[in-house]
Amino acid sequence: AKMAAAGSELLTGWCLFGLALLVILIFCWVYVRKYQSRRESEVISTITAIFALAVALISSALLPVDIFLVSYMKNQNGTFKDWADANVSRQIEDTVLYGYYTLYSIILFCVFLWIPFVYFYYEEKEEDDGNTCSQVKTALRYTLGFITICAVLLLIGAFVPLDIPNKTNSTEWEKVKLLFEEFGSSHGLTALSFSISSLTVIGMLAAITYTAYGMSALPLNLIKGTTSAAYERLENTEDIEEVEQHLLRIKSKCRDGRPLSSRDRRTVQQLEERLRTLRRRERHLESIEKSWWTKFCEAIRPLKIVWGVFFIIVALLFTVSLFLSNLDKALHSAGFDSGFIILGTNLTNPLNMLLPVLQTVFPLDYILITTIVMYFIFTSMAGIRNMGIWFFWIRLYKIRRGKTRPQALLFLCMILLLIVLHTSYMIYSLAPQYVMYGSQKYLVQVAVRHTCKHLYSMLKKHVFIVCTFFFLLDQCIVTRTYLFLHKFWFFSAAYYFGNWAFIAVFLIGLIVSCCKGKKSVIEGEVDEDDSDMSDDELSVYY
C-alpha cells in the first residue's frame, strides 16, 4: 500500500514534468523556426537545435520537480506521510538523481559530440560542397578533439580527491561530509559530476556575459520601445537622397572624359554599397509599416511598458538577493577551502523570505521557482539575441529573425545548454534554504516549565520548525540538486566569485541600457553584408 501511494505521488510529479515537456517541445520548434534562415536551413541542424534547446529547458524544469518531491513527502506538521518510509524516500530520491544523470549525460553527448559534429559538417559543406564522405571525415576529425576533452574530464573526475582538510571548522565540515556520504561516491557518477561541473563553470562565464546583460536590456527595451516606422522611413528617404546627390557630384567629375582618381573610385564604391543598404532598409520599413503585426504591437504598447517595469523590478530583486547571499557567504562561510559553503542563513534576502510565505498556499512557491528558472532562460536568450555570439573581441554570428545561419543556431543552443547548467546554482544562491529542503518542516520536542500553585513541573511539547542545515538527514531530506552542486569545493568557490562578477556586469549593463536611445524598429534586420536575396523573405514575417 505504501509503495502504491508513493507511486501515486511520484506519478503526480512526473505528470507535471511531462506536461512541461510537451510545452517545451512546442516552444523550441517555434523558436528555432522563427530565427533560422529559410535559404540556409538544413534538416539535421534544425533537429539538432530543437533537441538541444529542449534538453536545456527540460534540465531547468527538473529543479522544481526535485523540490516538489522532497517537500511532498512530509506533512505540514513536520511528520513524514504514511507512505514515505525510508525505503520509499530513497527510491524517490534515486529516481530524481537518475533523472539528473540521464539529462546531464545527454548534455555531455550534445556538447562534446553531436553539436560539434553537425557544426563542423556544415562548415565543411560550405567549403567543399558535394563530397559528403570528405565532409563527414573532416567533421569527425575535429569532433575527436571535443571527445578527447570529455574523456580527460571524466578521468580527472574519477580520481579527483573529495576530502579537503579544514582545521578551522572541523565540526561544520563533518556535517558537509555526511551529505556527501549520503549522496554516494561511485567513481562513474563522480566522473560525470566533475565533467558537468566543468561545463557549469563555462556556463557561468556565459551567464555573466549574456544573462546579466539580458536582465537589464530586456526590460528597458520593453519600456523604451522602438522608433516609429514612419519616422525612420522619412529619415531613410532623406539619407538616400543625400547619398544619391553625393554620387552625382563625384561622377560629374568624369563627364569630360577624365578618369576618376583612385580615392574617388573607392568613395563611389562605398557610397553605392551604402545606397544598396539604404534601399533594403526602405523595403523593410515599408513592409513593417503596412504589417498587421506592427499595428498589434502598437495597440499593446501599454502592456509592454507594464511588463518592462515588472521585469526590471524582478531583476533588481534578484540582484539584491544575490548580493545579500554572497555577502552572507563572505562573512559567515567556512572560507575558500570549503568553497564558501555556508551552514544556515545568517543574512536573509527578499527572495528567501518570500518563498516560505508562499509555501502556505500551494502551489505558489513552485510557480515562483519555475518562473525564476524560465526568467533566467529568457533573459539569456534576449542577451544572446542582442549581443550576438562572440569569441573574445571577434563577433562570430548574429542572431536575427529569419536570417540566422545553422551554425549560429547550434552555437546558440550550446550556450543555452551551458547557461542552464549554471542556473541551478544561481537559484541556490538566491534561495539556499529553499533549494536544499523545499517546504519541509521538522518536528521536535521541547521542554516547557509549567507553574501551578507554587509547584514547578516540566512538560514536553511538540513544535515544528523549518528545516535548515543543522537538522538530521533522516528527518530532513536534502534535494539531489544541492548535493550535486556541492560535490567539489573548488567549483563552489568559482561560482562564488562568478556571482560577484554577475552582479557587476548587470549593473554595467543597466547603466549602458539606460543611456542608449530607442532601438530601431528593424534593429539587426538589415546589414551591409546582407544580399538582396534576403529581402525575398519579408512577406514571411511582416
| Structural class determined from secondary elements | mainly alpha
Task: Give the strand content.
Answer: 5-15%
Task: Give the terminus-to-terminus CA distance.
Answer: 59 Å
Task: Round the Cα radius of gyration to an integer and report it.
Answer: 28 Å
SSE pattern, N- to C-terminal: HHHHHHHHHHHHEEHHEEHHH
The major sheet is characterized as: 2 strands, antiparallel
Uncertain residue segments: 164-170, 531-542
* Number of extended strands: 4
Shape category: globular
What is the helix tally?
A: 17
As a percent range, the share of helical residues equals: 55-70%
Q: Numbering strands along the chain, what is their spatial order in the largest sheet? A: 1-2
- Average predicted local confidence, pLDDT: 76
Number of domains: 1
Keywords: Cobalamin, Cobalt, Coiled coil, Lysosome, Membrane, Transmembrane, Transmembrane helix, Transport
Protein name: Lysosomal cobalamin transport escort protein LMBD1
Family: Belongs to the LIMR family. LMBRD1 subfamily.
Subcellular location: Lysosome membrane
